[in-house]
Amino acid sequence: MTMRVGVYPGTFDPITLGHMDILRRGAKLVDRLVIGVTTNPSKDPMFDDDERFAMVQREVADCEGDIAVVHFNSLLMDFAEREGATVIIRGLRAVADFEYEFQMAGMNQQLNDTIETVFLMADVALQPIASRLVKEIALFGGDIRKFVTPAVEREVVARVAELGGKGE
């Protein structure tokens, strides 16, 4: 029997409870889940590649399943092929996510039609969480504890303080 490998890509800047929900559930669907930490050129990250990679590694350390965290800076389909993936796991929060993800899945299918995209709906309580909004709340001194783990909250607050925001 062939091992089912899934890839869960993202910038994870920072990793949120919503990301954690999707990766825990995604890990149950495959034999091995590879979390691909990447840079999105259209986003301005709060944390650099190495910081985000370390953050994700720490956060998934106690998760069940065969989970690996890998840097990548290439087309998603090239990364998925390199990892031997048959599935790409994506989380959905709202209709706007679906429209974007549906388009991406269609383009990815044109690049490699042997790799399926699986969409998981975020837990209802976690649907509003977005890394971009977590950073914005933190930059204005808001409480982000409902959206991230305590370790991630400390890192975000510290970074906001470094940036001269209202984080502390």
Polypeptide structure, described:
The protein has 6 helices and 5 strands. Helix 1 links the parallel strand 1 (5-10) and strand 2 (32-37). It has helices at residues 17-27, 49-60, 76-83, 95-111, 131-139, 150-162; strands spanning 5-10, 32-37, 66-71, 87-92, 116-121. With 168 residues, the protein is of the alpha/beta class. Helix content is 42%, strand content 18%. The protein has a 5-stranded parallel sheet, with helices on both faces. The chain starts with a strand and ends in a 6-residue tail after the last helix. The chain has one domain: HUPs (Rossmann fold, 3-Layer(aba) Sandwich), CATH 3.40.50.620. The protein is globular, with a radius of gyration of 16 Å. The longest helix has 17 residues, at 95-111.
Key terms for this structure?
alpha/beta, Rossmann fold, globular
In round numbers, the mean pLDDT is 92
Instruction: Characterize the overall form.
Output: globular
Strand content: 15-25%
Q: By CATH's scheme, which homologous superfamily applies?
A: HUPs
Provide the succession of SSEs. EHEHEHEHEHH
CATH fold call: Rossmann fold
Supply the number of structural domains: 1
> Regions with pLDDT < 50 over 5+ consecutive residues?
none
Adjacency order of strands in the biggest sheet: 3-2-1-4-5
What kind of oligomer do you see? Answer: single chain
**Separation of the first and last Cα atoms:** 53 Å
Q: How large is the count of helical segments?
A: 6
User: In the CATH classification, which architecture applies?
Assistant: 3-Layer(aba) Sandwich
| Helix/strand/pairing category | alpha/beta
How many strand segments?
5
Biggest beta sheet attributes:
5 strands, parallel
Q: What's the Cα radius of gyration?
A: 16 Å
Helical coverage, percent range: 40-55%
